[in-house]
Each structure stands twice: as C-alpha cells, then as structure tokens.
Design brief:
Blueprint (H helix, E strand, L loop, with lengths): L7 H7 L2 H9 L17 E5 L5 E4 L3 E2 L7 E2 L8 E6 L6 E6 L5 E6 L9 E4 L4 E5 L5 E2 L1
Antiparallel strand pairs: 1-2, 1-9, 3-4, 4-8, 5-6, 6-7, 7-8, 9-10
Length: about 140
C-alpha cells in the first residue's frame, strides 16, 4: 500500500477548516451535527483526505452516539489503531493507514457479529452513492 504524504500547506489547501482540524489535528465534531451521522443512502464511505475506501453502508448502523458508526471495516488494512489517552480517557484512535488522517475511535460495544463500533467523524469522510452511479455527495 502506498503511503500518501503532503505538507501542512497542501493539506490546508485541499481540506476545509473543519476537515483539517479533525483529520490533521485530531479534532472531533460535535455529536449529532455531522453530515453522515443520520445518513441512510447506499454506498461507500472513503477518507476525505486520500479517498481510500474505508466503510460501506452495509456496515453502518445507528448506535445512538451521534456520529456515523460502523460494525465492520471491509478494508481493515486501511484502518490503523493507536492508543489514545487524551482528555482523561483511555480509547483507541482509528486513522487512515494510507495518509494518517484521524477518523475517530473504535470501541468494543458494537452489535453482532463483530461487537465493534467504529465511531467516525463525518468530516473525515466522503460518500459515493451507489444509487446515483458512484456520484459523490
């Protein structure tokens, strides 16, 4: 897998302020505010920074947490995990393995069959709608 590296200036040029804050500075959008938390279209969710295909609508579910949640990552080699002890919590951060973008966190409280909940910031994702012939939203 090819790693994607860009300068800070290149990332700032490509991303909105919110996307940059979340993906490059490990920010978090407020719950129930992101574009995809209550999104029910059929398609694929990709990294906003490098377009790596990360999740599908088949693996998305409503966890009630206010962020897009997925019980599986079909391309798990594209997701890296790292311990996160920020904000007085112990969590596992998830990042895009191609470009290092912060996506969110993974928790062991998801539904069957995996018991996993990938809790992802909407601003770290783009979406390609299968019903609209691959058109991005």
């Amino acid at each position: 897998m090819k790693k994607i590296t860009k300068s800070d200036a290149e990332w700032r040029e490509k991303l909105t302020d919110e996307q940059y804050d979340i993906t490059r500075s490990k920010g978090t959008e407020r719950a129930f505010t992101g574009q995809y938390w209550n999104h029910h279209e059929t398609g694929e969710y990709s990294c906003i920074c490098c377009e790596a295909p990360l999740f599908t609508s088949d693996d998305k579910y409503d966890s009630g947490c206010g962020w897009p949640s997925f019980f599986s990552a079909p391309n798990s080699e594209l997701i890296e995990e790292s311990p996160d002890i920020s904000h007085g919590m112990v969590r596992t951060e998830i990042m895009c393995s191609q470009c290092g973008a912060h996506l969110g966190h993974v928790f062991p409280d998801g539904p069957a069959p995996t018991g996993i909940r990938y809790c992802v910031n909407s601003a770290s994702l783009s979406f390609k709608d299968k019903e609209k012939h691959g058109k991005e939203e």
